[in-house]
Write a structure and sequence with these properties.
By secondary structure, the protein is α/β, with parallel strands linked by helices. Helix content is about 20%, strand content about 30%. The protein is built from four helices and 17 strands. Strands 9-10-11-12-15-16 form a six-stranded mixed sheet, covered by helices on one side. Strands 4-3-1-17 form a four-stranded mixed sheet, covered by helices on one side. Helix 1 packs parallel to helix 2. The longest helix has 16 residues. The N and C termini lie close together (about 5 Å).
Length: about 230
């Protein structure tokens, strides 16, 4: 891996209205303040909040807007996740997309372990998400509850993942446990972890970045935050 600047965005998430305009506005602010940023990660379900009644088809205008934003700023963009409904069987998946600086969706990842009962009716994904940033390193993606199962991270790091991108939505007392799990996972599997939580309907904040020694490189509190961290 070579030096690479990744920014997390911890923002307030509404449950009953779209947050997409706010996400794009914060991305604009982030890139104006920290123009060296090369990758941006938002929290789980940041675009529309935690209600699956707002599920969209796999191809939709919202993803196109994020593609345009990534292309505009020439950054890798993971805009959290959103509920997407399969057009044939109607199943709903909690899905993240990975967008490259050319504005292309290069990966889609459906959360493997939906958190019951909050995601009752949400189907489980079956494929791991690994992708390379040319001349930089290998990245993996997991969503929230996935990290509670060590097998998921073991599978990713066995495929050479050096940085685990981990959007979460935790609004319960589980957040303290997740922070401990993030540190233990980083040390156990020798990878960086970018763990980005939301606020309001999107969680209780406390986003963190952990290095492979389990050292916390950044710890957000309970307010909005954007934090670019250069990993090497």
């Amino acid at each position: 891996m070579t030096p690479f600047a990744i920014a997390g965005v911890q923002m307030y998430v509404n449950a009953l209205q779209s947050n997409v305009d706010g996400m794009i506005q914060r991305l604009d602010i982030l890139m104006a303040r920290f123009p060296w940023t090369q990758m941006v990660l938002f929290s789980e379900l940041a675009p529309f909040g935690p209600l699956d009644k707002f599920a969209l088809p796999p191809e939709n205008e919202t993803i196109e807007r994020f593609q345009e934003a990534a292309r505009k700023h020439r950054v890798w963009l993971i805009p959290g996740s959103m509920f997407l409904k399969h057009p044939e069987d109607g199943r709903i998946y909690n899905t993240s997309v990975v967008i490259n600086p050319e504005g292309e969706v290069i990966r889609r990842y459906a959360k493997m372990f939906p958190f019951r009962p909050y995601e009752e009716g949400v189907a489980a994904g079956t494929e791991f998400c690994v992708f390379d940033v040319p001349d930089v390193g290998r990245f993996g993606l997991s969503i929230c509850y996935d990290i509670w199962f060590p097998e998921t991270t073991r599978q990713l790091t066995a495929q050479g993942v050096e940085v685990l991108l981990h959007p979460v939505l935790t609004g319960t007392t589980d957040r303290d446990a997740e922070l401990a799990i993030a540190r233990a996972t980083a040390a156990q599997f020798q990878c960086y972890i970018f763990d980005v939580n939301g606020l309001g309907a999107g969680g209780t904040g406390k986003s963190c970045v952990v290095d492979p020694t389990s050292m916390v490189l950044h710890q957000s509190a309970g307010q909005e935050d954007m934090f670019p961290i250069e990993v090497d």
